[in-house]
Amino acid sequence: MEKEPKRLLYGATPLVFLLLITLLYTQLFASTSLPFNRWMQRLTNWKVTDSTLSEAIKCQESFKPSLRKLLKGEDQSKLEANGFACDLDFYSMVCVASEPFLRIDTTRMTVEMLLNQTCPQDKPVRIKPYARQDSSVILKDTTPVEIMQQNISSLAACEYNHTVPAVIFSSSGFRGNMFHEFNEVIIPLYITSRHFESNVQLILSDYNPLFVSRYAQILSHLSGYQVMNPATNGSIHCFPGGAVVGLKFHDFLSINISSSINPGGYSMLDFKKFLQDSYNLKETQVSTKKPKLLLISRVKSRAFLNEEEMVNMMEELGFDIVIARPKQMSNLTEFSQLVSSCSVMVGAHGAGLTNELFLPVGAVVVQVVPLGLEWASAVYFGEPAGAMGVHYLEYRIQPEESSLIDTYGRSDEVIADPESVFAKSFEAGRAVYITGQNLKINVSRFRETLVQARLLVGNDS
Ligand SMILES: *[C@@H]1O[C@H](CO)[C@@H](O)[C@H](O)[C@H]1NC(C)=O
Ligand SMILES: *[C@@H]1O[C@H](CO)[C@@H](O)[C@H](O)[C@H]1NC(C)=O
Ligand SMILES: *[C@@H]1O[C@H](CO)[C@@H](O)[C@H](O)[C@H]1NC(C)=O
Ligand SMILES: *[C@@H]1O[C@H](CO)[C@@H](O)[C@H](O)[C@H]1NC(C)=O
Ligand SMILES: *[C@@H]1O[C@H](CO)[C@@H](O)[C@H](O)[C@H]1NC(C)=O
Ligand SMILES: *[C@@H]1O[C@H](CO)[C@@H](O)[C@H](O)[C@H]1NC(C)=O
Ligand SMILES: *[C@@H]1O[C@H](CO)[C@@H](O)[C@H](O)[C@H]1NC(C)=O
Question: Could you tell me which residue ranges the Glycosyltransferase 61 catalytic domain spans (predicted)?
């Protein structure tokens, strides 16, 4: 253990020291009990005024309860003792730091805390703040953030003083894919930051302007401050309120209300309500008028080759059809309005189905499941639907409805045993089933699924 000889320099005798602390306590903190002396002991060779320190401690203390909620029991005790703790699970890593002297150097992407001489950190903690910790391939372009202890004399002066905590995250995993953006960034960001009630500074490392403009409404409802771009704001930012690095992930497109880490205690329906508020969506319940059916039309892969025939069948069933092409879907402000006015959404497995988040309560999502994609279909879009208040129906195609049968023939292992193809490598499976497959739907068979959908949304017209 290292000694702390400087502590004794503070007062000539322990008695004077005690008197001074008592005075400071009674004068500055009559009504509160802040750990002022604990910090004063560590600041003997550093110029800091009493009022600055008391402000910083007040800020730290006021946000600590919210930060604690991002950790489990024993890690909460660690945070209490050391001002720092992390939670790690299969997909996400979230580190929390709380200290009046905390600063973030946005040039180096470091979170700096005071050196603890009793227990110096042996090396910085390094995090890539993206909720796919399971895959180093996905994280390869994610800039790491380091959390380190600094000698008090090496702590740089604050260029900006912030009065709220920071949440540092990255959006670098799968750019431009709506499913991955909601799954790995937006929903985890909601879980991690919503309970600060906008009193939080978001710092987007690997800043992507397209991401920020695409999700502007959501980001501005999560934080009262503009999202910070470290690349254009390389400074020493002081955050006496603390910092969070990384986002908490629960499950695919899901919030688990009974998870041990759910700081706001939110459910998926709360998230849906949040989206409705953010995008100003008026229609929150499924309409009782002639049901509108949204058909997600894909072009590059998993495209419906007989879309017109499908549309005719749907019209016969009494649906009002809206066809959404990829271009139309890119502006969420506009597209979320359209989705929220629909009773049924139909699409082949793919990112477009993420729009189920914007469907009104009571609506139906119909997923057309291509060959080989049963698992991803169920896990990414099927299982999460119920908690969003929407019904889920699945239409699994038969080999005859896949374009793969023309390419490979009926008896090929591609048709008979997709698992064996994925077993060779994910890339091999991907090339065949995800990017290499189109769909020619057997309309008379598919009709049965849509009759069910029609029944679920009511038969009033
Ligand atoms: C320093 O580390 C020790 C051991 O973990 C801990 O008990 C103590 O509270 C820490 N001090 C501060 C000021 O964080
Ligand atoms: C802290 O900084 C001082 C001055 O730069 C240096 O002499 C000392 O060794 C440092 N202590 C540690 C533990 O890094
Ligand atoms: C930030 O606060 C520190 C005290 O902690 C003060 O010395 C400094 O001048 C402040 N900086 C700015 C830019 O307000
Ligand atoms: C950098 O961040 C500070 C604090 O949030 C802000 O006031 C300033 O405008 C930012 N500068 C740039 C260039 O974005
Ligand atoms: C939600 O979290 C709890 C507690 O960790 C766990 O027992 C439960 O299985 C989870 N529920 C779902 C649907 O994953
Ligand atoms: C999306 O559309 C809205 C309304 O038409 C428009 O104001 C906004 O600028 C568009 N957003 C983007 C990112 O293009
Ligand atoms: C379409 O599906 C029906 C069963 O619903 C079946 O009888 C028919 O043979 C199928 N048509 C083709 C072309 O496969």
Answer: 273-366
